[in-house]
Amino acid sequence: MMTQFAPLCTGSTNMSHTNDSSIATNTLLAVFEQGGYPNFAPLYQAEGFRVSQVTSVRKAMSRLKKAPPRVIVAEFNYQSDFRDRMSSLESLLAAAQHHPGIRVIAFYERETRPQLDRLLQQFELFETLAYPIEEESLRAALRRAVAAG
User: Fold this and answer.
1) Considering the domain boundaries, does residue 80 fall inside one?
2) In a domain, 107, yes or no
């Protein structure tokens, strides 16, 4: 299923920041690797975020280095053929650890919950949402992420 991406929102360059001075409070990085769910960019924008969308963790890591977002929304895609990790999300989480103010929300398939639980023993996720993603659950998670400062 191909999903069209909303254009990158540019917004103002004068942004408020969290305690980690490199993180802009109103930015969200959406990592859309495999998809299979709606494009939530309009919802992110309605919640006041400037949205960047990328289609790979490699591109997300590049964005993370250049301009750390306040929130990252990514997919946990369990990959049994990986030798040294369970999913590419691990690489992104390892990089995000250098910015403690980033809140990561991950989407996952219910049947991969045991593998996700193993990942959670190593890395912290702000919130996890199982497919199918309900807009109200996602909206509530985003609001909790903002409220968490």
Assistant:
1) yes
2) yes
The answer to whether the predicted template modeling score (pTM) of the entire model surpasses 0.90 is no
Name which of 72, 94, 85, 83 is nearest 115 in CA terms. 85
Residue recorded with tokens 């659950």: 137
125, 113 Cβ separation under 8 angstroms:
no
For 28, 32, 69, 135, the CA distances from 62, given in Å and listed in that order, are: 14, 15, 12, 28
- Give the amino acid at 4: Q
Output the domain CATH number for residue 141: 3.40.50.2300
Residue 10, in any domain of the structure: no
Give the tens place of pLDDT for each residue, 13-70: 333 334 455 666 699 999 999 888 899 999 999 999 999 999 999 999 999 999 999 9
Domain that holds residue 120: 27-147
Closest CA to 144 of 130, 123, 122, 129: 129
